[in-house]
Amino acid sequence: MLRPKWRVLGLLFALVISAAQPAWATKRSRTSKTPVAASAKKKTGKRLSGRAAAKARAQEAAKARAEARAKAEAEAMAGSKAAVFAFQGDESEPVRRQVVRLLQANGLRVRADLRPNDTAEQFRDMAAALDLAVYVHGRVADVHSGRSVATVTLRSGVSGKTITTARFEGKRRELASMVEQGLWEKMRSPLARACIEAKKPGRRHNAPMRIEAGSPVEDAPLQAKGW
After folding, report:
1. Rounded CA separation 73/193 (Å)
2. Domains, the chain, ranges and CATH?
């Protein structure tokens, strides 16, 4: 028979063991869950990384397409020919001169001594005969309260029809500056498409035909060499 002293010690040891067991179990449980949580976190990080990489690839592809398009447009406009008619309206000459400068600055060869025709067919025939890609019409008119509107119209040399029109409103003396700052952004893409279309083979016109040129305009020396 155990002595009372050893019996008490044994009872205390049993109590300590039973009290410590839940802590060990909890620690073991938490330890067993840690790899699962880490694995899930790692997979989520991979998904986010994959999405970011896909987004970056899409952005690079879009940038490459935009650069290729800009290059093709610049090549199409280089050396293409445009006819700029006299603009209608009072004090419209500064606006027209600015249009001529913009076209020439972007590689087009400008002719400024032609008169507009009456029908799309006539425009088409004259463009085919003179190898014109586009025509440019313009008009300046007063609207209200001392403000004026400058309208610049682009016409296809292939179809003879209007492609697009840009409109600028402000004080008359400011219109030329507004055209300088905003016209190219509005007309670059449709102008480039017209130049690409004009360079395709097979353009024909009805012969014979008579080309009517007007009196030389003020900035006729601005025409590109080679006409």
Report:
1. 7
2. 78-222 (3.40.50.10070)
